[in-house]
Amino acid sequence: MADVVTWDERYALGFDEIDAQHQALFTLINDIWHAQVRGADRATVDALIGRLERYTREHFAAEEALMRSEGCPEIAAHLAEHQQFIHRVALEREHLGERGVVSLDMLHFLRDWLVSHILRADAAYARFLEQGTPRPGFALSRFFTRFLG
Ligand SMILES: [Fe+2]
Fold first, then answer.
1. Which residues form the Hemerythrin-like domain (predicted)?
2. CATH H superfamily, domain 15-148
């Protein structure tokens, strides 16, 4: 079954934990599409969008805390983009309708948004982190454990 979005090494920011979270988001988008193609019922699709919404919130919260803790620039604009994406996913869930159909257009929108956000906004903070001197005892893996277990 074809995927909506395929991971590409171009999207890797070089921080394993962050890259893994972005890959998980791609998988969740593909899961929604696969459920649609299978003809899954409304409850199943609703649950999958709910999962995407929850994971997105957790991932964004982790990214935002990381940016704050490391003093990354342009946090406000980055947060505004996150809010926009969460709003769009939540809206889609609200308007799922009786048949529980998510359009391929919508999934393409989520894909395009994520890819361009990663390549531009996330790549900017990744570059900033790379250039900074890590604080003593700072470990990204430990940092994210607080958010995503
Ligand atoms: Fe981001």
1. 14-126
2. Hemerythrin-like (1.20.120.50)
pLDDT tens, residue by residue, 31-56: 999 999 999 999 999 999 999 999 99
Distance, CA 108 to ligand 1 centroid (Å)? 18
Distances (CA, A) of 68 to 14, 36, 61, 138: 19, 38, 11, 14
Rounded to the nearest whole angstrom, what is the distance from the C-alpha of residue 40 to the centroid of ligand 1?
30
* pLDDT digits 0-9 by tens, 70-107: 889 999 999 999 999 999 998 888 888 777 888 888 99
Domain ranges of the chain: 15-148
pLDDT number for residue 15: 87
Q: How many A from CA of 85 to the centre of ligand 1?
A: 10
- Residue 22 alpha carbon to ligand 1 centre in Å: 9
